[in-house]
Amino acid sequence: MKRLLNPVFLVLLGIYLSNQLLQKAFGIFIPYIHAYLGDVLCLPIMLTFSVVAFIKIKGLGEDYRLPWRYTVFTLAYVALVFELALPGISNRFYSDPLDVVAYAFGAVFFHLVLNRPIIPRYNSPSSAKL
User: Fold this and answer.
1) Can you spell out the DSSP letters for 42-103?
2) What's the rounded Cα separation, in Å, for the pair 6 and 23?
3) pTM summary value
4) Which tens digit of pLDDT belongs to each residue from 35-77?
5) Second label for 79, Cα 20 to 30 Å away, from 19, 38, 44, 108?
């Protein structure tokens, strides 16, 4: 799928995986990065994979865009699960209102930047005159 090769998506995924590697493999925790980077990158990565799944499973065209209401629903769902439900049932999790702000930032970024079809660039006839 072309969307998984989008350079912006690949950079976000690389940043997320690098941060996880630093934390889990090397025990390096950078305070604000550790606290919020994963939350900001969560929805752009999750929603990009969702769009690819919709295209593949439903046979939609590559120009499919996830409706805004799906993005908002996913934002609400993630916020409810990770900021209300899980902290309520386990001491391993805690609620942080700034996490919701980070999720929202990621959702808006996804919708404005990543939620668009990849349009191939074609050479125009005028560029072939050289």
Assistant:
1) HHHHHHHHHHHHHHHHHT--TT----HHHHHHHHHHHHHIIIIIHHHH-TT----HHHHHHH
2) 26
3) 0.87
4) 999 999 999 999 999 999 999 999 999 899 999 999 999 999 9
5) 19
